[in-house]
């Protein structure tokens, strides 16, 4: 660490040493809200809860990925598996959708999620970021940050640090009162997230550390988390460091941690018991028995652990993220099942019972009985006969000489349409410079091709034979990248320029299409093909969880009773969307499907079982 970095170390450093790290403890119940003089700290390389040794046995769940009506049920399942702590990210873009405008109500009430964890006998390890990764849209950053084309997120740029600090201070008003010292369940708070895999700007890390202290989180153990080979880059010397790794790497990872931080404490901040899926790839299934054996080894050493994920849930709406593997863009599916111990709909898997048995034997604590779960239901097929053409429902446009990104127009998610006129006949390559992420190309209203960032496509040969040809380019945000330095360039739409036969195209009419209230569109019985919205009524006898089969559709999005369920794409692997029972009611339930290549009358139905796909459709 340089002298300048040392000058940036918070005056709270000594306090942090005694109150640092994420955790929770097997066999001890969090205090009631009126409890006083509770403490969680690190001493002599060990976690101490109220002065007694504490082994954190945690599992991760994300409140936006679980319907609020099911929060308590999922938490009870965590307790029934033998967990004593819940680890949870906080998602900045979920709460501050416009600068300075915050939402902590309903599904966004993270404080209530924390209180419910406490009421179920669980401590909480909080991960407020501001970067979270998590296969979540843009790693949790709000899209409006990108309206400033000079901003450098996740670093020491004041253009980023000022709104990030403002967010953390506002979050502190919600959650700092729920720390253990104040009678709540929060015992530890993570500083940033796996920063060593991104950079080594320790001045930036110290600033986030200070922001969290200033937000009131100085009563918790503060810590950093990185891969074992990135501790030096991502950690802070005054804070404990935990390690993240996949099954099969426990011995080597902990050996590395012991070498770099021999004073301890020793904890796996993320132990990946499954994996996520990308569109066009295989669904991931992992070895539950091998994982159970390694979990036993970790617990038998006395190490703490957080299982990522205990319950994955669903990236409802537009919230799936994407990876960049080299130069390859890899968008995630809507499901975040993760092959976790608790499946996407909250049902215990064989992995759940294997882990439950291991934890009970390692801790000597018999967990409560596993709660019963209501059965999922099937819903009869319904033909979507009402429709509304995208082309007949366009909003008021912007006019610009050059193409503009979604963020330039204060749009975060959905689609965006670019329209221009080509005065003279021309033949050549149409090039979309930095397309993010998927485009459908139309000439005089007729689709002539598609371009997919996933396939590294950005050009299409066109032959325009008529004068005054209308060119339309409909672009989908398929999910901003949530990991690596690629996040700094994740504006959506056509982010640079469009050329045709080597010459720039100008004079654009641009239509933002966030698709926020499709239920208000003018649906009719008139047939519609192509880019259309389709509406019908799911007839439900008794509400329960179901899985909407989207196999009759090509690429688009689904809403039910106004709830944005998520994306669909015929390439798979996911073939059915999880529809939570609380979002349904007996009788008619409105379902709307937007399909880029649709046709009136196609059917949709609910199945009692998911279909996440073993092999992508061809």
List key phrases describing it.
single chain; 618 residues; alpha+beta; Jelly Rolls; 6-stranded antiparallel β-sheet; disordered N terminus
Question: Can you lay out the helices and strands and say which pair or pack?
Answer:
Blueprint: H1 3-8, H2 13-18, E1 40-43, E2 46-49, E3 52-53, E4 57-60, H3 71-80, E5 85-89, H4 92-95, H5 110-119, E6 123-127, H6 158-175, E7 186-190, H7 202-214, E8 221-226, H8 231-234, E9 241-245, H9 250-260, E10 267-272, H10 288-300, E11 304-308, E12 322-325, E13 328-331, H11 350-363, E14 379-383, E15 386-389, E16 398-400, E17 415-422, E18 426-432, E19 435-436, E20 438-443, E21 446-452, E22 459-464, E23 469-476, E24 493-494, E25 498-500, E26 503-504, E27 508-513, E28 529-540, E29 546-549, E30 555-560, E31 563-569, E32 576-579, E33 587-599, E34 603-607
Parallel strand pairs: 4-5, 4-11, 5-6, 6-7, 7-8, 8-9, 9-10, 10-11
Antiparallel strand pairs: 1-2, 2-3, 12-13, 14-34, 15-28, 16-27, 17-23, 17-27, 18-22, 18-25, 19-24, 20-21, 20-23, 25-26, 28-33, 29-32, 29-34, 30-31, 30-33
Helix pairs in contact: 6-7, 10-11
């Amino acid at each position: 660490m340089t002298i300048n970095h040392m000058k940036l170390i918070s005056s709270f450093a000594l306090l942090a040493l005694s109150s640092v790290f994420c955790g929770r403890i097997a066999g001890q119940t969090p205090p009631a809200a009126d409890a006083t003089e509770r403490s969680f700290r690190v001493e002599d390389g060990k976690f101490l809860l109220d002065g007694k040794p504490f082994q954190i046995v945690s599992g991760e769940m994300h409140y936006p990925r679980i319907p609020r009506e099911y929060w308590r049920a999922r938490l009870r399942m965590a307790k029934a598996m033998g967990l004593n702590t819940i680890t949870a990210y906080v998602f900045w873009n979920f709460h501050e959708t416009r600068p300075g405008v915050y939402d902590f109500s309903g599904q966004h009430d993270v404080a209530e999620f924390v209180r419910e964890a406490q009421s179920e006998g669980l401590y909480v390890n909080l991960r407020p970021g501001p970067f979270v990764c998590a296969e979540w849209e843009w790693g949790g950053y709000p899209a409006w940050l990108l309206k400033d084309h000079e901003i450098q997120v996740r670093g020491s740029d004041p253009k980023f640090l000022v709104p990030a600090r403002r967010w953390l201070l506002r979050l502190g008003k919600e959650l700092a009162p729920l720390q253990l010292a104040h009678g709540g369940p929060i015992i530890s708070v993570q500083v940033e997230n796996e920063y060593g895999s991104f950079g080594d700007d320790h001045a930036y890390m110290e600033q986030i550390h200070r922001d969290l202290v200033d937000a009131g989180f100085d009563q918790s153990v503060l810590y950093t988390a990185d891969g074992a080979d990135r501790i030096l880059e991502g950690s802070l010397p005054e804070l404990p460091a935990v390690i993240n790794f996949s099954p099969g790497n426990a011995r080597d990872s902990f050996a590395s941690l012991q070498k770099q931080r021999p004073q301890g404490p020793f904890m796996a901040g993320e132990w990946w018991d499954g994996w996520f899926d990308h569109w066009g790839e295989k669904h991931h299934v992992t070895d539950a028995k091998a994982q159970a054996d390694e979990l036993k080894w970790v617990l038998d050493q006395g190490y703490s652990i957080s299982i990522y994920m205990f319950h994955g849930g669903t990236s409802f709406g537009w919230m799936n993220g994407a990876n960049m593997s080299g130069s390859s863009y890899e968008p995630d599916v809507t499901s975040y099942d993760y092959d976790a111990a608790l499946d996407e709909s909250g049902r215990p898997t064989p992995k759940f019972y294997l882990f439950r048995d291991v934890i009970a034997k390692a801790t000597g604590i018999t967990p409560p009985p596993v709660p019963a779960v209501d059965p999922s239901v099937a819903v009869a097929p319904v033909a979507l006969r009402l429709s509304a053409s995208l082309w007949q429902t366009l909003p008021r446009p912007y006019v610009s000489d050059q193409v503009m990104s979604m963020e330039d127009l204060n749009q975060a998610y959905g689609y965006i349409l670019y329209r221009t006129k080509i005065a003279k006949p021309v033949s050549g390559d149409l090039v979309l410079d930095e397309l993010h992420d998927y485009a459908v190309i139309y000439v005089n209203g007729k689709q002539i091709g598609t371009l997919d960032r996933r396939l590294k496509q950005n050009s299409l040969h066109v032959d325009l034979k008529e004068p005054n040809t209308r060119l339309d380019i409909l672009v989908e945000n398929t999910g901003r990248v949530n990991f690596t330095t690629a996040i700094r360039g994740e504006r959506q739409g056509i982010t640079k320029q469009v050329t045709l036969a080597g010459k720039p195209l100008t004079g654009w009419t641009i239509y933002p299409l966030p698709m926020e209230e499709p239920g208000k569109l003018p649906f009719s019985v008139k047939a519609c093909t192509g880019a259309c919205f389709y509406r019908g009524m799911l007839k439900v006898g008794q509400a329960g969880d179901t899985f909407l089969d989207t196999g009759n559709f090509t690429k688009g999005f689904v809403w039910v009773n106004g709830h944005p369920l998520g994306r669909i794409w015929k390439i798979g692997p996911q073939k059915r969307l999880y529809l939570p029972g609380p979002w349904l009611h007996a009788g008619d339930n409105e379902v709307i499907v937007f399909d880029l290549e649709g046709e009136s009358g196609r059917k949709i139905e609910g199945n009692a079982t998911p279909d996440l796909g073993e092999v992508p459709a061809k």
